[in-house]
Amino acid sequence: MARLAQTAGLTDIQREILSTVRDFVDKEILPVATELEHRDEYPQQIVDGLKELGLFGLMIPEEYGGLGESLLTYALCVEEIARGWMSVSGIINTHFIVAYMLKQHGTQEQKEHFLPRMAAGDIRGAFSMSEPALGSDVSAITSKAVKDGDEYVLTGQKMWLTNGGTSSLVAVLVRSDEGHPEGTAPHKSMTTFLVEKEPGFGEVRPGLTIPGKIDKMGYKGVDTTELIMDGLRIPADRVLGGQTGRGFYQMMDGVEVGRVNVAARGCGVAQRAFELGVSYAQQRHTFGKPIAQHQAIQFKLAEMATKVEAAHAMMVNAARKKDSGERNDLEAGMAKYLASEYCKEVVEDAFRIHGGYGFSKEYEIERLYREAPMLLIGEGTAEIQKMIIGRRLLEEYRFQG
User: What is the dihedral of CA 107, 110, 113, 115, to 10 degrees?
Assistant: First the structure.
């Protein structure tokens, strides 16, 4: 068990779950991750193993067939999985955001219909908020839903769906002006629809097309896609929560969970980069001794380890705050911001320790070097996190003059 990034106060069940996941990562993910990543191959065997372990139901309540575990347990599992291969953690992240949104905001019928099959891993979730011209401005969404009898007709183009092809359920955020008069604030006229589809690419149901995978610098294996709606008809009972106009708040609640997840991924990737760097530094010799004995390398290792510890502590704090039922947007924003930035720095330091070999695809650090940048933008850029943090700090420290 690694000495870094330990978590105090865990239950026996939590420790047992983490030990099982860690063993799975060491035996089933790390030995094959780089090869699969280079081929941009979906890790079906790994995903089947996660399904067998019950991880797709980790946070889903026991009454729906899940394990009923906390966000902290989930985040610590994500940290372990990302240490093995970040793409695998992405496969379960979007699934859990949708499951969390259903648990928190779904109607009883929606929970009973979807959650048991999501817990079993038979339904895989994805969520869709971004659009090609959207960036971080969610209020500028142009995809729309128009009421037509007992159905809604959805039209528009969405972007950056993780699991877009392999999922069978997508939570889609669109504008729905029905029932919301002109001049209504944009965030009050958005609705989340639960869109069921066949896994795969092309036309996956009438009016819904998933084009092929987007070719990415890193974060390979997991499919990232567009989603095109052209006259997509969705029954009114597939409005999340049964009422229009609440989609923005539902999505933001899910994104808070996602930000803790991205922080956990950053912690996991940084841990792996540190492991690779400290190991290589003890094997590589220059000037008659291992480079780990040179003060410059020891300083670098000290900085890397401190960043791993700090990011882990903030991620754990954000998860525990959410589990307590308290507002955690400040903590989640801080954790996501710090973990992603520190991850990038720790990976780059490990890359530097490897010297020229770090540039070779033969070495695992090359893969991590391409994966880390995704965390800087996933679930909101660093700039967005700082805006959230700054606004919340001004609320907490309002001048009383």
Answer: -90
239 Cα distance to chain centroid: 23
| Closest by Cα among 151, 308, 321 to 238 | 151
Which residue in 256, 345, 379, 396 is the catalytic one? 379
Give the C-alpha separation, 107 to 122, whole Å.
Answer: 20
Q: Report phi then psi at 147, rounded to 5.
A: -70, 135
Distance CA 29, CA 84 (A): 6
Residue pLDDT tens, the chain, 401 long: 457 889 999 999 999 999 999 999 999 999 999 999 999 999 999 999 999 999 999 999 999 999 999 999 999 999 999 999 999 999 999 999 999 999 999 999 999 999 999 999 999 999 999 999 877 778 889 999 999 999 999 999 999 999 999 999 999 999 987 766 666 677 788 999 999 999 999 999 999 999 989 999 999 999 999 999 999 999 999 999 999 999 999 998 988 888 899 999 999 999 999 999 999 999 999 999 999 999 999 999 999 999 999 999 999 999 999 999 888 889 999 999 999 999 999 999 999 999 999 999 999 999 999 999 999 988 778 888 899 899 999 998 988 87
Please choose, from the candidates 335, 341, 334, 344, the residue with its C-alpha nearest in 3D space to the C-alpha of residue 386: 334
Q: Any idea how long the chain is?
A: 401
Of 270, 361, 324, whose CA–CA distance to 33 is shortest?
A: 361
Is 379 tagged catalytic?
yes
Nearest to 65 by CA among 113, 124, 118: 118
Distance CA 73, CA 260 (A): 12
Using DSSP's 3-state secondary structure scheme, residue 82 falls into: helix
Q: Which amino acid is at 372?
A: A
The DSSP 8-state label assigned to residue 25 in this structure reads: I
342, 269 contact by CB (below 8 A): no
User: Helix and strand tally (H, E) in the chain?
Assistant: 11, 10
**Predicted structure pTM score:** 0.93
Which residues, 6 or more positions from 24, have their beta carbon under 8 angstroms from its beta carbon?
49, 50, 53
